[in-house]
């Protein structure tokens, strides 16, 4: 399993786009800052062919402490949601099918 990191993304920008490492780092940080500020403003971020990030409101509800079984009120909150595009879903499914075919 491979973890995708900021450093890894910067390296990909550097090697594939031809920007310097420092320019790649600045570009990535600016993109991430724009995504974050857009979500903080309550708007969705749609990346064509990848998916949509959005902020959803979750209402107040009753939960249960798993250790004690005691009921507690869970306060309303905002949560970040991601909905993958159909193109991403298809790509992941095809990749998983190829991977399982190689193993089996």
From TrEMBL:
Alphabetic keyword roster: DNA recombination, DNA-binding, Transcription, Transcription regulation, Translation regulation
GO molecular function, one term: structural constituent of chromatin
Superkingdom in the source lineage: Bacteria
Entry GO terms, CC: cytosol
SUPFAM superfamilies attached to this UniProt entry: IHF-like DNA-binding proteins
Database matches in PROSITE patterns: HISTONE_LIKE
Annotated Pfam families: Bac_DNA_binding
GO biological process: DNA recombination; positive regulation of metabolic process; regulation of DNA-templated transcription; regulation of translation
Family named by the database record: Belongs to the bacterial histone-like protein family.
Reported function: This protein is one of the two subunits of integration host factor, a specific DNA-binding protein that functions in genetic recombination as well as in transcriptional and translational control.
HAMAP family assigned to the protein according to its UniProt record, in alphabetical order: IHF_alpha
Protein name: Integration host factor subunit alpha
Organism: Commensalibacter intestini
Gene name of the record: ihfA
């Amino acid at each position: 399993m491979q973890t995708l990191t900021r450093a890894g993304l910067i390296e990909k920008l550097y090697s594939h786009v031809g920007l310097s490492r420092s320019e790649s780092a600045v570009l990535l940080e600016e993109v991430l800052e724009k995504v974050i500020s857009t979500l903080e403003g309550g708007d969705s971020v749609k990346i064509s062919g990848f998916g949509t990030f959005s902020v959803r409101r979750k209402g107040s509800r009753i939960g249960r402490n798993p250790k004690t079984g005691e009921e507690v009120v869970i306060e309303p909150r905002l949560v970040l949601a991601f909905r993958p595009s159909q193109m991403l879903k298809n790509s992941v499914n095809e990749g998983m099918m190829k991977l399982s075919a190689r193993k089996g």
